[in-house]
Amino acid sequence: MSESEDKSASGAQTVRRALALLRLIACGQERGVRLVDLERMSGLNRPTVHRLLKTLVQEGAVEQDSETRRYLIGQEISLLGLARTRRFPLLTLADPYMSELADQVGDTVFLSIRHGHDSICIGRRTGRHPIQVLSIEVGVRRPLGVGVSGVALLASLGREESVELVRGNAARLEVMGERVEDVIARVEVARREGIAHAPAGLMPGTSAVAVPVLTEGGVALGAITVTAMAERLGVERVGMVVERMKAAAGGIAGRWGRVEGRAGQ
Fold first, then answer.
1. pLDDT at 203
2. What is the pLDDT of residues 198-237, one digit of tens each?
3. Cβ-based neighbours of 139, under 8 Å, separated by 6 or more
4. How far apart are CA 19 and CA 165, in angstroms?
5. Torsion angles phi and psi, residue 92, rounded to 5
6. Per the database record, which ranges form the IclR-ED domain (predicted)?
7. What pLDDT does 176 receive?
8. Which ranges constitute the DSSP H helices of 130-237?
């Protein structure tokens, strides 16, 4: 390899590592992420992580909380994102179905998509019930398998691919207190049942259920999740909620197919 090729490869590796750190930091949202956790999740040594973080902070892509010392996504990244205000066409198509579903079931509806090894919440609509469970914010990025949306997305894939993705997230799952074996088991249950159901949600006293939004070819465009107080997703009601969710998912997928069909003509 020539000197110029060697420098090019080294530069590409640095960019990839910096972007990988940004994705991990994004998972922390307003809480931020500790340096030790960034090391564990990235697999990079401390000097490398520290060097990359220093540069990212200097460029405004990352901020460090002066009290907690945790790292957060910086203003520069937020400003860059404004350049693409229409970056989620699926959300535009799904919005009326999400709103109708929230009105029908009375609880909060979320739309999530898969991005690499992560699930990302891109939309949220609240229902009419006095108590709404706002378990996650729009923009939340989590390793696939953490939360019912990620489980539903994994269950829509082939068994081998889903297991590989979960194992690829092993270090991040460990930091979050999750075991790879447990996540794989939850995905298997969701694959058999066609839904991902967590009777005990991420917040105490809550429950969540998710279904995939599948194209005619079986490709997952995303996942719809409903979260509610646990008693509102008990055995006597969850069947009705899932039925409405599947109808909404079918409507979204059908509309997506029609739009894609027109675009291909």
1. 79
2. 998 777 899 999 999 999 999 999 999 999 999 999 888 9
3. 26, 29, 120, 121, 122
4. 19
5. -60, -45
6. 76-258
7. 87
8. 148-155, 159-168, 170-175, 180-193
CA-CA distance, 190 to 210, in Å (whole number)? 9
Cα dihedral 253, 254, 258, 264 in deg (nearest 10): 40
Q: Where are the domains of the chain?
A: 1-82, 89-264
In 3-state terms the chain splits into helix, strand, coil percentages (rounded to 5) of: 50, 20, 30
3-class state of residue 143 by DSSP: strand
Question: What's the average model confidence in pLDDT over 144-167?
Answer: 95
> Residue 131 is encoded by which pair of tokens?
């108590």
Task: Report CA torsion sign: 163, 147, 23, 27.
Answer: negative
Q: Please report where in the chains the tokens 């693409």 appear, as a residue.
A: 84
Q: What is the pLDDT of residue 130?
A: 93
Q: Taking a C-beta distance cutoff of 8 angstroms, is the pair 20, 49 a contact?
A: no
Q: Which amino acid is at 253?
A: A
Helix (H) or strand (E) holding 156: none
Identify any residues that bridge with 213 across adjacent strands, giving them in sequence order: 222
On whether the CB atoms of residues 50 and 36 are closer than 8 A, the answer is no
Q: Which strands make up the sheet holding 141-143, listed edge to edge?
A: 141-143, 118-125, 108-115, 220-229, 206-214, 196-198
Is a pLDDT exceeding 90 seen at residue 183? Answer: yes
Among 57, 53, 56, which residue's Cα sits nearest to residue 39? 53
Q: If you average pLDDT over each of 46-50, 62-66, 153-157, which comes out highest? A: 153-157
Q: 1-82 in CATH: which number?
A: 1.10.10.10
Dihedral (CA of 99, 213, 200, 143) sign: negative
- Which tokens go with 157? 């894939």
What class has domain 89-264? alpha beta
Give CA–CA dist 34/68, Å, rounded. Answer: 8
Q: How confident is the model at residue 156 (pLDDT cuts 50, 70, 90)?
A: very high
